[in-house]
Amino acid sequence: MLDPGLFHKALLKRDIDFFAGVPDSLLKNFCAYIDDQGTPGKHIITANEGNAVALATGYHLATGKTGAVYMQNSGLGNCINPLTSLTDQDVYNIPLLLIIGWRGEPGIKDEPQHIKQGRITTAQLDLLEIPYQILDAQSNLEEALNNLMTAENMCKGPVALLIRKKTFSEYKRSKKCLYDYTLKREEALRSILSQAGTDDLIVSTTGKTSRELFELRKERFEKQCDFLTVGSMGHASSIALGVAMGRPHRNVLCIDGDGAFIMHMGSLPIIGSLKPENFVHILLNNSAHESVGGQETVAGTIDISKIVKACGYKKYFQAGSSSEVEECWKEIKKIKGPVFLEIKVCVGSREDLGRPDSTPVQNKKSFMEFCSVC
After folding, report:
1. Is the pLDDT of residue 344 over 80?
2. Helical ranges in the chain per DSSP H
3. How high is the pLDDT of residue 217?
4. Is the separation of the CB atoms in 160 and 134 below 8 Å?
5. 59-70 pLDDT, tens per residue?
6. Contacts by 140-145 with C-beta closer than 8 Å and gap 24+?
7. I want to staple 68 with a disulfide (CB 3.0 to 4.6 A). Which of 97, 356, 359, 364 is the partner?
């Protein structure tokens, strides 16, 4: 397997010392390494992948150096615009190294939301006219980088390394969590389900939140009727807004995560401006990209209450325990939305946490049936 430190040194040797992106499970050991060992101020975990492309562009404009942007292959969708209208050789011709985790690679078992993206990733890079090399545990790193970063390729703008599963060897982060939240996310979800009405419609975000919600419904012997947003990170709140507009007589709960919340924060003023009275936005904030390695988000350093109030939400609440969730909910039930509840939760989940055993299409049908009940 490829040592993350050796990979980092190989990039530094080529004068690539600036790293930006959104963490990915296939790249978590490399991301952890540069977070620990990289030059301070030259590793930035961005809100989304398009932001990272823009950051690397700015760094190149200021220094003449090539920046590295890392992402899961699903993140290509977030950066197609800057890749075609900013860094492309027909526009500003910005050299850039994309480091892409190849989820859903054909022939490799993966979750449903990764299958299509994995199948079309190489075709996307071809369509974008981005030269790429595939890197795995057996690859000759120097040869791959030399083949990719030729003068001819770099003159064309961005180039890409497509990283296969189990390419990097393990690296344990030395940085410890900065926050001492004690409430477990699963307990917070259990509290939410205990307080929610039997007719409330729930849309949950991607990652472990939806997996835990699915298992809690089983624990409670309840029908699977929630919309589990297994992909499309950052869009759960907009999905929930659409549901709220389509079923204005039903309460709609959006259960969000801090990484997803930050990724597409532009949905907040839209929600606030439309003023859906039946909308409750719940943020489970552990200030980490937990599902892909535990790298920190900036959610622990910003004042979310001021942000949501400025965007037009009627009221903001915060809880850090199950009892506080219950107390907040008593007030939430009295208020017309949109309402925001931030719940501080700790990083971590059960080791035996499963995945939904229903397909996304089955989940959709169950949710739509529940929507149409009344």
Report:
1. yes
2. 4-13, 28-37, 49-63, 76-85, 112-127, 141-148, 151-154, 185-195, 208-219, 236-246, 258-263, 267-274, 304-310, 322-332, 360-371
3. 94
4. no
5. 999 999 999 999
6. 141/2, 141/6, 141/7, 141/10, 142/10, 145/10, 145/11, 145/14
7. 97
97-116 per-position pLDDT tens digit: 999 999 999 999 998 889 99
Other beta carbons within 10 Å of 81: 11
pTM of this structure: 0.93
Report the distance separating Cα 183 and Cα 201, nearest Å.
24
- Give the single-character DSSP code of 66: P
**CA-CA distances (angstroms) from residue 365 to 77, 288, 362?**
26, 32, 5
Q: In this structure, what DSSP letter does residue 169 have?
A: P
HSE of 202, CA atoms in CB hemisphere, 13 A: 24
DSSP for residue 173: -
Residue 44 carries which side chain, given as an amino acid letter? I
Length of the chain: 374
Give 98's strand partners.
69, 160
Among the listed residues 318, 336, 243, the one whose alpha carbon sits nearest the alpha carbon of residue 282: 318
In tens, the pLDDT along 48-57 reads 999 999 999 9
Each residue's pLDDT tens digit, 148-171: 999 888 888 999 999 999 999 999
Return d(Cα 336, Cα 276) in angstroms, integer.
8
Report residue 107 as tokens: 């022939």
pLDDT reported for residue 177: 64
Number of H helices and E strands in the chain, helices first, is 15, 14
- pLDDT range class, residue 319, cuts 50, 70, 90: very high
